[in-house]
User: Which sequence fits this backbone?
């Protein structure tokens, strides 16, 4: 009898400890068959905390900006997986209010030739097929018109923005190329595939460092910018999120680039070269990547959430589609577990936070951003920045498919 009582007490104590641990420490919650998938948890968190969409961009009111397309693309994949109508309604709600009945896109100015503005058009392909609203088709065609006249370098690379002349940034490859690749398929414009591949190839050609295998954030063909190397035209450092943008662009463009295209094998080779380099700079302890990727032992550097999520997404997707060797899945799994163990917390209301996201970083402008190490580590760090939550959802969807 006494042994039975002691056994019951022990079982009760163990259960109580486990329960307290789960309630008190969100970052130890593990993804298992009985748990709500992290992609769903983050999607639900953002819909609850940003009901009017403005909060997705950490702004008061919504606007036409690349971050909405980034987050809503992830949510779209969650909707496809779950069939949850509230997610579809949330996505459609943003685009419905931002696009007038005649197809005019609110807050969008085509004359600025800002390649960032193309990114939010990616979700419109699937949304148009689902909702069949003519204004969505018109909006996609408007974004395509921008890219017809978008200024270019002498080698055909798109300027990042009209106000950043002669400059290609890694960011811009993600913003524009996957949209154009999908547009080529949907609207039967196969000549676009040459342009898409050229953007990727020229970016690697001019910004890849042969010693590390990593790509610099930006390339200034004119060498006029203070941040550009007088010999190479490259910015001075390897910024994590910029490399994340490029890595996502590679796998997303390969969704549409025909295997018979003359540059298909080269894009696949570029993907393998980049992932091989990134694997070398993965933090062996946590599985994460640093804000300045190759300088993890330097004072002030930190393990950053958005780039880590982007790399996990890209590698997991590339393995799933057979673009890269299966060995990269081990890198992706370690990175994803590192995100869950070190960067994710859940509060008492069940709301998820992705912590240690770099708020923003760029080159040039006013005040001037010089691309120095001190600049990158000095930018604001915050939780649930959309440049982190969007890739985290995308990464989670990929990992949940394994």
Assistant:
């Amino acid at each position: 009898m006494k042994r039975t009582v002691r056994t019951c007490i022990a079982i009760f104590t163990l259960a109580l400890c486990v329960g307290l641990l789960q309630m008190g420490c969100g970052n130890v919650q593990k993804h298992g068959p009985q748990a709500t998938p992290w992609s769903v948890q983050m999607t639900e968190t953002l819909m609850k905390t940003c009901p009017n969409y403005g909060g997705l961009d950490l702004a008061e009111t919504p606007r036409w900006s690349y971050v909405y397309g980034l987050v809503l693309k992830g949510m779209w994949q969650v909707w496809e997986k779950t069939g949850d109508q509230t997610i579809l309604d949330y996505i459609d709600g943003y685009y419905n209010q931002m696009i007038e009945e005649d197809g005019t896109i609110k807050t969008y100015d085509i004359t600025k030739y800002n390649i960032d503005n193309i990114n939010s058009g990616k979700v419109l392909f699937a949304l148009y097929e689902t909702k069949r609203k003519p204004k969505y088709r018109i909006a996609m065609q408007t974004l395509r018109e921008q890219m017809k006249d978008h200024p270019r370098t002498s080698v055909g690379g798109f300027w990042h923005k009209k106000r950043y002349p002669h400059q290609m940034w890694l960011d811009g490859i993600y913003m524009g190329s996957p949209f154009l690749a999908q547009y080529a398929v949907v609207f039967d414009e196969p000549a676009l595939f040459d342009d898409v591949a050229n953007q990727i190839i020229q970016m690697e050609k001019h910004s890849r460092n042969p010693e590390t295998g990593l790509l610099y954030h930006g390339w200034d063909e004119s060498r006029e910018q203070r941040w550009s190397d007088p010999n190479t035209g490259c910015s001075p450092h390897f910024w994590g999120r910029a490399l994340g943008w490029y890595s996502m662009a590679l796998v997303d463009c390969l969704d549409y680039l025909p295997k018979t295209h003359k540059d298909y094998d080269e894009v696949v080779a570029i993907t393998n070269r980049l992932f091989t380099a990134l694997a070398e700079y993965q933090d062996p302890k946590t599985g994460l990547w640093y804000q300045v990727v190759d300088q993890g032992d330097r004072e002030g550097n930190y393990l950053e959430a958005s780039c880590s999520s982007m790399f996990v997404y890209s590698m997991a997707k590339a393995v799933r589609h057979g673009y890269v060797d299966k060995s990269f899945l081990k890198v992706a799994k370690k990175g994803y577990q590192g995100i869950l163990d070190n960067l994710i917390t859940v509060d008492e209301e069940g709301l998820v936070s992705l912590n240690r996201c770099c708020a923003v970083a760029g080159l040039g402008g006013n005040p001037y951003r010089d691309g120095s190490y001190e600049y990158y580590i000095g930018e604001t760090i915050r939780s649930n920045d959309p440049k982190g939550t969007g890739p985290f959802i995308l990464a989670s969807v990929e990992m949940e498919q394994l």
About this structure: The beta strands are 167-169, 218-220, 344-346, 352-354, 357-358, 381-382.
